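Recap quiz, item 2
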Amino acid sequence: MARRLATALTSTDPRVAAGRSPSPWWQTAVVYQVYLRSFADSNGDGIGDLAGLRSRLPYLAWLGVDALWINPHYPSGGADGGYDIVDYRAVDPDYGDVADLEGLVKDARRLGLRVVLDVVPNHTSDRHPWFSAAVADPDSPEAARYHFAPPSEEPPNNWQSLFGGPAWSRTADGRWYLHLFSPEQPDLNWREPAVAADFERTLRFWLDRGVSGFRVDVAYGLFKDAALRDNPGSYAPTLFGHGPEQAMTWNQPEVHDVWRRWRAVCDEYPDTMLVGEVCLADLEQVALYSRPDEMHQSLSFRLLKSPWATEPFAEAVQSALDAFGGVGAPVSWVLGNHDKERQVTRFGGGAVGTARARAAALLMLALPGSAYVYAGDELGLPQAAVPDEAKLDPIFFRSGGARVGRDGCRVPMPWNDSDGVGFSPEGAAPAWLPIPADWQQYAVSRQTRDGGSTLTLYRRALALRAAHPALAAGDATVSTRGDVLTVRCVGESETVRCLVNMGAETVLVGCSGSVLLTSTVSVRHSAGSVALPPNSAVWVVED
Ligand code: NOJ
Ligand code: CA
């Protein structure tokens, strides 16, 4: 596992002997996204927690990932899945306490895993003490840390909330305040120095506890147009990809200085990193957030949004390689997360959706850069049908039910065959989101015994990715021919080809070499060619 050891530098490391320093771990890392509330419940309250996650670390080490990113673990108002934070330097009692987090980091280290936290600098909870003080007194220093406007008939501008409705709500005394997400998430005013100072304290608080960095929420936000002018266009209801129609709200040039300051803080802590959530339509603008003195990476959501066809996939890969290559940053590939419908469902559901998700995983894990795997995607979980009365996502409520919301990709992990699928101990309270009746079929315990399972495929792929540096650390070229997408990954000592058949017919591809891994057993290979069934992928080491 060469990459796992990248920072455990010793004089026996061949790269040191050759006078080269190894690449930083994050450049090619597989980062596993833990939806903490749904991962493992240790105390039977139906809510996943840090002790539960800690007890499952051996699973993550066995799977072969390099790091975990944990969705927000902070005390929260509970209005948006933890993205409305009340105290940035504490742990929500639902999840444990700071000592639990320190214990998690220590245990993870012992297993060769790094822990990355989520940090949310664009907005706080409306229950954050700053906002309470700001509401109580318009002249308080805290009021200057948010965007308030005096009482008036109409809101101060035409901005819309991403979750639906206007981006302005009123306090009891009639003042307006800005919230680009739900009203319980007031936006911070980053033109106020106290805000920046407090976040730097927060970064250091967690870095001092041994974490390896942060996933930065809404990193393209923070600063707004200084005069809060109207946007030229109206907001299209998607979570990703804002363009010029939203020019006053997002991507203000001043925000890059925040990342320069945060980078300087991280530089004081060896081997730490920042990965930004930057949802802008223009990928070259996204890449600017990962210039050498800013964040180390920005998540690339193109694969996450591409329909199952060669041209959009090839475009997704090439445009990301070009844009991030242009600033010298590795691409951070994402196929699934807690905001998007599960891949299996997005790619058509059932056997077809599963086959496509498996093939897409081999594609992502071959590409140069780091890869983000969302908990449960390694089990091939489909989107769960969450009944409306159990839903919690503000997107569902604020759209009056017109948008289904994100609860269906956030339901608890199935660990075993028992009724509660091993998420909680026996006799526990019901899980915080209902667990689908057929969830046992996806359980970790079943899939570890099954050589053809999606879990087994991920585990093999991760082991091979670590053993073959052409994957993840090679130079990739992308091409399409008919329904076949090819990524050729050229490493120092070998070349690995990833072929994906995205069409409806089996395709015979001329390709000599030895097969490393196939996404389905029905791939046939003989000297000089591979017969790829529909919706399948193969890794071949070229002769
Ligand atoms: C992006 C997060 O991924 C999403 O879950 C959250 O609702 C918004 N940022 C607001 O913090
Ligand atoms: Ca619990």
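Residues 233 and 245 are 4 Å apart (CA to CA).
Residues 80-81, 83, 120, 181, 217-218, 277, 338-339 surround 1-deoxynojirimycin (ligand 1) (CB under 6 Å).
End of item.
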